[in-house]
Amino acid sequence: MARKKIALIGSGMIGGTLAHVAAREELGDVVLFDIAEGLPQGKALDLAESTPVYNSSVSLKGANAYEDIAGADVCIVTAGVPRKPGMSRDDLLGINLKVMKAVGEGIKAHAPNAFVICITNPLDAMVWALQQFSGLPANKVVGMAGVLDSSRFAYFLSEKTGVSVADIHAWTLAGHGDSMVPMVRHSTVGGLPLPQLVKQGWMTQEELDAIVDRTRKGGGEIVALLKTGSAYYAPAESAIAMAKSYLKDQKRVLPAAAFCQGEYGVDGLYVGVPTLIGAEGAEKIVEFDFNDAEQEMFNTSVEAVGGLVDACKDIDSSL
Ligand code: TXD
């Protein structure tokens, strides 16, 4: 069987880390693409020079032309610009929307059969725009945010309880932003739903509330520490988990931004929902039972996503 091909659109901090992990895990040949000249070539060469050390047989190549992503099985998109001082959220939206247009057209022309994972912020709106611009089927385009947010939630729960992360299943759903919804009743530590942990004295309600709050602000906590950028190790690992589930048809159920068509009462938007990812892409959305409070938080988050998508439509009349 021929090696798989993984195209990384954007070769910045997350793109470079994605290439490193993909090479170490021998997921396939890697093409690092970027508009910056030299950056993807330099990272690809540095990484290629490391493959003899750990005996990885994949190739790594840097590229500035979309022709080089031809036939990719997976495209992971991190291309875009981060928010700079003085720039509004709308300014960022407009700039990254243009980037999604270029990337979407590049994928449509050269890798129309790929499974596409978008990471660029604002995530839920950018993955929607990328699907529109690429014209790929909605089940082949997903967004990564929930695996990361849920992993942060799981890590904080592990730190508090002393239970291995292997025995924690944490879920964070809805949009990727301050209104994300950590699912307290559906998340478990050693099989126990979180409210039971509180009842049994593993932690107080206040401590659990603080973990939920820290999860919501997890991205900002890293930005404040790094000062020069945002998180990249955990985001890259999260996208690799999604790519692997597709490439190996693992059929894992992962929290992903998937295109909802009636699920959870959402129609025509991408939001974070438990998604079965296999060889057909996003194969099925798993529907948790929500109580009224959970549904209300979910709806609030979905409204925020809808607002961003409307802003995209206002900026680009072709949408
Ligand atoms: O959970 C999540 N979804 C996220 C999202 C978690 C963390 C970070 N998240 C977002 O990912 C972040 O807000 C950014 O929008 C992306 C990528 O983050 P990264 O840290 O990798 O950003 P960099 O280092 O700035 O890299 C972006 C690269 C950079 O090399 C640019 O030259 C390139 O994107 N770029 C482009 N590449 C191709 N085509 C175009 N048009 C383009 N424009 C910029």
Automatic annotation (TrEMBL):
Keywords: NAD, Oxidoreductase, Tricarboxylic acid cycle. Pfam families: Ldh_1_C, Ldh_1_N. The active site is at residue 176. Substrate binds at residues 83, 89, 121, 152. GO terms for molecular function: L-lactate dehydrogenase (NAD+) activity; L-malate dehydrogenase (NAD+) activity. It comes from the Bacteria. Its EC number is 1.1.1.37. Gene3D superfamilies: Lactate dehydrogenase/glycoside hydrolase, family 4, C-terminal, NAD(P)-binding Rossmann-like Domain. GO terms for biological process: lactate metabolic process; tricarboxylic acid cycle. NAD(+) binds at residues 10-15, 34, 96, 119-121. Residues 148-303 form the Lactate/malate dehydrogenase C-terminal domain. Residues 5-143 form the Lactate/malate dehydrogenase N-terminal domain. It catalyses: (S)-malate + NAD(+) = oxaloacetate + NADH + H(+). The keyword GTP-binding does not apply. PANTHER family: L-2-HYDROXYCARBOXYLATE DEHYDROGENASE (NAD(P)(+)), L-LACTATE DEHYDROGENASE. Belongs to the LDH/MDH superfamily. MDH type 3 family. HAMAP family: Malate_dehydrog_3. NCBIfam families: MalateDH_bact, PRK06223.1. Catalyzes the reversible oxidation of malate to oxaloacetate. This is Malate dehydrogenase. It comes from Hyphomonas beringensis.
